[in-house]
């Protein structure tokens, strides 16, 4: 028989080693390729074929490995390079653990004979099979099924789809439950960017409106919904609406995992807060992509602009996109590691320290960006026409081009609030609180640098323009200085003569003067007849100013106050009786001239348990230097209020002060909400002061450890 087979097939006799000294690891060979071709072709498998010989080698090698090392089992032959090429997230995962190893072959299992064929990957009975072959065929089918389930890559027609996102590497682990496998597969297949279909502008407006609706319902005011719901449940209920980002608890992986049955409500709220940071970053990146593809790279727009105008409009937006992409990759990887999010503030801190500096340069150039955009719209008719076409396309969802340009500054400020929200919910004196404090402080530093950069640019330009209009009568005062900026300017009426009812009724005794108030200087001027120049009459250091309100001396003096210069430019004391157009104007001038004057209500630093608070329901941009720009859902502590529609307040989350109209805010009526807002504000302040005190106490010693985080990407 051996000779017959040699004559028929032309092969040398097969030599089988009965004794193997060392374990043999099967490596891919040409025989294996031929085996795969034979399996896919459906041809009968002969006993002396290369498939038969290769399978026998596998059986012998596995048997010898069992004899040499009974406790170990051979690992599946998976090429690490191909493993990393399969999916983006697979490259970041560790190699298969020992639990993923292939079980050894049974030595007593028969191999397939001519009675079994493989058609299209499914084994079927051949018409030449005999009943005596069925036990052996069943054993081989069992072996094939166990081998396939132990280490198989289900590519589902890779060559046909050619989509790497649809390729997943599935390794069935011995002892893992199907529920655990489903959770891990769901975590691995999370694609936050593709699942988010809300642009960042929509998310931002909706989330702020939801905060307002939540407060209104707790205040007992009419809202879009009905009924009364507890605060945490209401917050999630409002977020689970149209134009909102998905909730953590609505993910399939979370539902399968059973975490919703074991976690406490406050822990679920914390998970939602961290998950909102991730999904909002994905929404922000989606809007940046639209800015790049629809505007920055669009030939319709690019061909209408010069290279310098392109730079003025888009600045370093590509660096912003790169920073957001890195940040989002690390956030997604954290969720892929475990659907129960451990922390995100360590990632925020790492990127804020190493990559978020690009926000500062972009925001500082934003003033020039707006000016040049208005200039281009006026001068370039073709650009104006193409921009109108692009803004009206459906993918933009009715949003303006400028709403995309201001995205970076809106995001960095919103990111600070999201971290602040996490800080309110983490356990006190925990590691999560420490990382949240560090991330919040770093983001606050970036926001302050952005604001200071913008202010510095505008202040310098304003000082230059003011100095050009001034004419000094006697002693000249240098106006331009790096440490000086304008606080308030405007016209008031100066009253001369004795204080009597007759002089009050005589309008001849009122003379208009124009005040320029800087942070460290006051200039009293008189406008020229042309209205373009201002003649300086007097000046005084701001620290030498005093004011006196005459409201309690009768209705005629309701809008009048006295301004005292303890030491003017001639080194003598002078008093001016000034009248404003309204009571609010008078109070605004008084608080600007003498900032240390006591307000009607105490500041948040006084820790009053029931201080008056308002919430912004409509965004407002400041029109004068002493006004405060407010955004929807901002909570402010009231310091002063006038009868003609103005408030002087302090924003809780950053301590900024200024005037704003009453029409853009609503009073917070619920005492519990006010107390909670104040408590959360004080906790953040105390946590930051404690961290700063610890750093100050450790000066000269070894610095405290910052969160150690290694990114999941590398720069090429």
TrEMBL record:
SUPFAM superfamilies: DBL homology domain (DH-domain) (SSF48065), PH domain-like (SSF50729), SH3-domain (SSF50044). Residues 15-24, 707-716 have a biased composition (Polar residues). PROSITE patterns: DH_2, PH_DOMAIN, SH3. Residues 609-670 form the SH3 domain. SMART domains: PH, RhoGEF, SH3. Residues 485-598 form the PH domain. This is Ephexin-1.
